[in-house]
Amino acid sequence: MELVTLSTIVGWLTYSALLSLMALGVTLLYRTTKVANFAHASFVTVGAYVTYTLSIALSPNPYLGVPVAFVVVGAIALLLFYAVLEPMRKRNSSTVMLMIATLAFDIIMLGVMNIHADFLTNVYVVPSRNVLLSGSDFKFMGQPGILCVALGTLLLCSAALYLLLNFTTLGIALRASMENSSLSEAIGINVSMMLAVSWFIAGGLAGIAGALIPLWTLINPNIGTVLLASIFCASIVGGLEQIYGAVLGGFLLGLVDVVGTSVLASLVGPWVAFYEPVIPLLVLSATLILAPKGLAGVRVRRGK
Amino acid sequence: MAPIDQVILFTVDLSALFAVYLIINIGLNMQEGITGIPNFGIVFAVAGGAYIAGGLSTRLTVSLLGVQTNFDPVFDNVAVLQLVNPILRSQPSTAIALLILFLIIGGMAGALMGLISSAPAVRLREDYLAITLLAFGEILNVIGIGYKPLIGGPIGVNVPDIFGWAGQYRFYMGTLVLLLVAMAIFAYAGYLIKTPFGRTLKAIRDNEIVARSLGKDITRLRTTSILFGSLLCGIAGSLWVLYSGAVTPTYARFDWTFLPWLMILLGGMGSNRGTFVGTLIFVTLNKLIIYYKYEFVGILPFDVVWLNYLLLGIITILVLIYRPEGIVREKWTATGQNLGAADKGMKDG
């Protein structure tokens, strides 16, 4: 019996790519606003339901939802920023208060998404909880299309983010306001606008990741809440100080989670698989104890 | 049911919920309000107290009462309780002794959970701690569902009826005990905040560097604060289980982390009296919402439960934007030197 099957590896790569996309936004927001965004959970859920709703209402192509989710969730992130966080920031609220605000926003969105799901079931008489769209996915070299789409999207998004941050005036202004917001303001950068841009990007990335979830696993209005612990873990494991650390964290966490669980389950017994949600915590705890700044913060010492 | 009975039932139910949340909120206020530790995972300690006290309660009762039975306390839960409950009903003093034992177990379980969840991040900055504690939050539900000998898996187990001796007044007696425990903890917390220990915790919150320069062991004091706060959460969890008579693995972030945060925010962070006021106002308001929202059942094309989420989320955001200091502002702590200043401050405020 093989320990690691092909389908386990496919599962690992798909999950890791999606997790990295979500964690990328969390790290970006942490760098710009200094806030651990608890509302990321509902951003992901909204993305998932954009895909699902479009696939019933308009066309059976499940990938149609991706660009729509980018815009919709980006707009929701802007709403959170302008309606809630910006008024609080003007009153010098502490970071913890801003975090509670994102938690409260998440609770509101959780209510909204559940109402949306009830609406789909009660008014349009379609199933809306524990639904899956992988049936309408295409096949590429015998593997589900979501595998290459997820990896491709991650590659594309990270490349776009890299180009934006390093080669455009907007990106340089954005990085400047991350490093030192008062100094940036002094030289005429509109820091509030820069924060808004980062919220839109982070929301959009979460929306894209969420939009791809129905092709990978069952969705329900709690999907984001369930994933939130793993998203945060990926973000911390990669290192909150480094944006691309999120990708590293996502793949490492995915490896331990998917491959580690499957190997353990075949060695110890299938009951291990049930405790899979505990794994991100073990990885998180180990990282915080061994490398508090995350993997991207670890410097390899070289001899001269 | 006569209207007066409905009012009494409503009040008794309300008071029990108030007592449980008051204990949790004092525990949270100790951590966030007094020490500045943003514990976004208090559900971990509450569930820890509930599961461990709830899971051990039947086993311990069987062995301590010396009941001979071949039934398993968890898997043949109902049969075992049929043997145990009549004994507890006839011996009020034994029942009360067991109640105290379970509260101690629940408190210790809660403190242990606080220690486990905070240990990796207690030395790091508050945002790391906040994320770590939130991540730990609902993990006990996974274990509660997966590890059946703990509380019997997804459906949960019943616990011995500690208040059974009060007969038809069982829920009244339960509420009374809950309120007494809550008030004792409230009084003790009010005292603790004024002691040198409490003032040191506030100093850490207000300026960690100054506190460190005066030789305070920040990590140890922060851990102590988490331990004490989590101990209270564990006690509250076990009380709730004993009052409601059953424990199920359904302790969610919304009920046991978000709502306590909302309550201490509403009342005023850092203020013990504010915690009391915030809890009372919130629990009453929430109970009325639950009571009246069923008027809308059938009119709206969705489950009315979700209206609660919308309403409470919006209230929190409004409080955060327009009254971040809450209803009761935190007071100066009077000491020998600043007694005059504190009096003056109170008159001005």
Describe the structure.
- The complex is a heterodimer of chains A (about 300) and B (about 350).
- Chain A has about 300 residues and is an all-alpha fold.
- Chain A has helices at about 5-35, 40-55, 65-90, 95-120, 145-165, 170-180, 180-185, 190-210, 225-240, 245-265, 280-290; strands at about 140, 145.
- Chain A has a domain at about 20-220.
- The longest helix of chain A is centred in the N-terminal third of the chain and has 28 residues, at about 5-35.
- Chain B has about 350 residues and is mainly alpha-helical.
- Chain B has a domain at about 20-250.
- Chain B is built from 15 helices and two strands.
- Chain B has helices spanning about 5-35, 40-65, 75-90, 90-120, 125-135, 140-145, 150, 170-195, 195-205, 210-215, 220-245, 255-265, 270-295, 305-320, 340-349; strands at about 155-160, 245.
- In chain B, helix 1 (about 5-35) runs antiparallel to helix 11 (about 220-245) and helix 4 packs across helix 11.
- Residues about 340-349 of chain B have low confidence and may be disordered.
- At the A-B interface, helix 3, helix 4, helix 9 and helix 11 of A face helix 5, helix 6, helix 12 and helix 14 of B.
